[in-house]
Design brief:
Layout (H helix, E strand, L loop, with lengths): L1 H25 L3 E8 L10 E5 L11 E3 L5 E7 L3 E7 L17 E5 L6 E7 L4 E9 L9 E6 L3 E6 L4 E3 L6 E5 L6 E2 L1 E2 L2 E5 L9 E8 L11
Parallel strand pairs: 1-7, 8-16
Antiparallel strand pairs: 1-4, 2-3, 2-5, 5-6, 8-11, 9-10, 9-12, 12-13, 14-15
Amino acid sequence: MRLFWFVASFLLVSSFVAKAQTDERNHPDGRITGTVVDQAQQPIAGASVMAVETLDQNLNNPPSAKSDSAGQFEINGLALRNYHVYASKPREGYPEADPAYRDENQAAIALSPDQPSGSVIITLRKAGMLITDVRDKATGKPVSASYKLSVPKRWQTQGDLSYPLLVHPSTDVMLEVSANGYKTWFYSDASNPSRPLPLRLESGEQRSLRIELEPEENGSATDR
């Protein structure tokens, strides 16, 4: 009988301790401060900074901040967990976090009851910048299109084709462009358009590219 009460008391105390530890880790009193710099270690003002556990989580409204004129930022009210802190400034060529940049333009930090705050330095590398001009091959009119960039078996990212398109630097990527009513276009050898080729840009490099989309056989694109 004594053994029963001893085991029951032990389990009850253990459950209270576990709950207290869980509550402590989920209590939003964590704080991350830091500085965003470029590869020359110069501060980057106006960078968007976010703290996430993983890029696979919902990124609709992550804890975030903007860097000030000295490149410094502060994010408060965080649960005590492990975080990756990403920074970006697309207007200046520093891309938003996506699978291509899972291990770049970020810093890792662990918040715990013993260390509820910490500081990081995030060094950003510029992407390559592709300036595209997408046209209807038959009429020469501009076409609103979408893109997909990928490294086969590693990652892919896609979206509306904007100006400029930021391309992961120093990496061979495959580029395809599509639009309703048109055949999909692939970056390829001009002498053999049926053979897709990798596109490679270095950090900070800018390149212009005219893309002519061929209407599908039903002619619906040219009727617009």
